[in-house]
Amino acid sequence: MTTPRSSAPATDFAALFIDALVANGVRDVVLSPGSRSQALALVVADRERSGALRLHVRIDERVAGFVALGLAVETQRPVVVITTSGTAVANLHPAVLEAHHSGVPLIIVSADRPLSLRGIGSNQTTQQAGIFANAVRAEWDVAAPTRAKPGDPVALAAAVVGAAASGPVHVNVAFDVPLSGSVPSAATHDLSIAFADRDGLPPALHLEPRPGTVVVAGTGAGAVAETIARELGAPLLAEVTSGAHFGPNLVVAYRDLLNRANFGDRVERVIIFGHPTLSREVPALVQRDGVETIVVRSSASIDDYNPGHRVARFADRVLVNGEPDASPAGRSWLGRWVTTSRAELEQHDAPSIDIAISSEPADQAAFNRAVIAGLRAPVTRRALVEAVWRMSWPHDRLVVGASRLIRELDSYAPGKKISVHANRGLAGIDGTISTALGIARASQSAEGSTQQGITRVLLGDLALLHDAGALLFGEGEPRPRVQIVVGNDGGGTIFDGLEVAQTATSTDIDRVFLTKQVVDLEKLAGAYGWHYKRVENRGQLDEMLTPTNEPTIVEVPLAR
Q: For residue 253, what are the domain limits?
């Protein structure tokens, strides 16, 4: 069969390329407007109308990149980002870096000037090929298609999807005038390529259960870490973003116990899944003399986790031989960690109202006053993260920004099997809201989904302001159920707990680290058409966190 053609080679190429991407599994395209990329833009708009793909339009390329990241994280499919030429491409770099270090499948498609216009000072022209350096798995610099040399967009699309399986790729396509023509209908023949299945599973390292072993789960570990911990009879030190923060072996207070005599100093073997980033105790443990560390690689990992170059062994897969040690020593090893962790959390709970309840009017009045005082008390970070965790359910999504709050959540959240995401590849505050909007859009429109959960974003005020452009929904763009919960302590107070706070003057800390801000978040929300709520005390927390159908910003003032 012949493929329909338009009046412009650029559009013919774009149509076949997009159709072949869809045939090879792409479902979502994020687009930022531009002239040089108009052929691609018109094709994806047409294919959205036919139901072949979902199109998401964002005016800011930096936002677009992180929206695509969120879509890819949730769907586990490659997501396409389309930009015009010039600085538009460079604005994708933060999202590409995060995708590179997290193994997220992004397909960057940038439009470019033809070779004849490069290097001569042409407007909006720079060196786009290679712009992402080694942060992409593969890249292609495609010559401008012509009638005489149309290129092979079908083979290109198949190669691109195959390379994107473990991380971002870059396709830089030159387009010459005419930049677009009438969009042809989709090709009627099969454009998909059969990818070879993996030839079996990688060889496994076999582990024997023994006391002195702990399992550590960092970001991206997944539920396999929880399974291995149970099979080994080992304490599970699982970060809240690991996908393994649940189960009977979970030790929430792992930071405290790793620093405590007869706990951390008794560890002899560490099995690590994912990328731990939320504590200093874990890398310190790995670097301690007498500790054997085994790191289980992720298929998407770029760098092997190896603090101090002290990891003894790397494995692509592990299997457990035998049953957990049922001796008193074996049972005691796991039991002490779990029970002590639970006791630690209970000990640090908010103090109960220490008033004897009796029928005496004076006692009842004192009790009522104490209850009211507790409800009127300012919200603490722990109270905030516990409320957000309590209100989140398996059909919801929780996205946590890089701030003090993610460490607070990691320290106190009890085990619960819910979807928690954070951009921990490089642990930056970039694109937190944009990523969450991509996750929300994908999770709330999933094929066959019968539950409409909400996506909550828990972050600090600077992370919100850093990504404020993500709050803009263009006319006609879907508005998912999203609740942004902002712990507003007036700046970057995370630096108050770092070494610099012990050496620098308070004036310098405030000036170049705290970066105090006094933005009116209610007016910011209103400017972008978001609903706004403000939590004044602990008694309002659950009420204000109740889901609504409209995108909402919930501001929670916090003390520095």
A: 205-347
Same domain assignment for residues 209 and 169:
no
* Residue 426 forms part of a structural domain: yes
Asked if 3 and 54 touch (Cβ cutoff 8 Å), the reply is: no
Q: Please give the backbone phi and psi of residue 272, each rounded to the nearest 5 degrees, phi first.
A: -115, 130
Indicate the pTM of the whole model.
0.92
| Cα dihedral 473, 476, 477, 482 sign | positive
Query: What is the per-residue DSSP string for 85-134?
Result: STHHHHTTHHHHHHHHHHT--EEEEEEE--GGGTTTT-TT----TTTTGG
Residue 143 CA to residue 158 CA, distance in Å, equals 18
Q: Which helix (H) or strand (E) holds 484?
A: strand 482-488
**131 domain residue, yes or no:** yes
Angle at alpha carbon of residue 69, lines to 60 and 307, rounded to 5°: 120
Considering only 78-82, 85-89, 152-156, 497-501, which range has the smallest mean pLDDT?
497-501
Q: Which two structure tokens, joined as six digits, stand for 135? A: 């942060």
Q: Which of 131, 340, 295, 79 is nearest to 205 (CA)?
A: 295
Taking residue 484's Cβ as centre, other Cβ atoms within 10 Å add up to 29
Q: Which two tokens stand for residue 549?
A: 């159908």
| Percentages of the chain per state (helix, strand, coil), in multiples of 5 | 40, 15, 45
Taking phi over 0 as left and psi of -120 to 50 as alpha, with beta for the rest, 70 belongs to: alpha
Residue 352 lies in a domain: no
Give the integer Cα–Cα distance in Å for 525 and 468: 9
| Domain boundary residue, one of 326, 347, 368 | 347
Instruction: Flag whether 500 is in a domain.
Output: yes
What letter does residue 421 receive in the DSSP assignment? E
pLDDT bin (cut points 50, 70, 90) of residue 367 is low
- Give the tens place of pLDDT for each residue, 253-274: 999 999 999 999 999 999 999 9
In this structure, the chain runs to a length of 560
Instruction: Tell me which residue of 350, 355, 352 sits closest to 366, measured CA to CA.
Output: 355
The number of folded domains in the chain is 3
Say if residue 275's pLDDT is above 50: yes
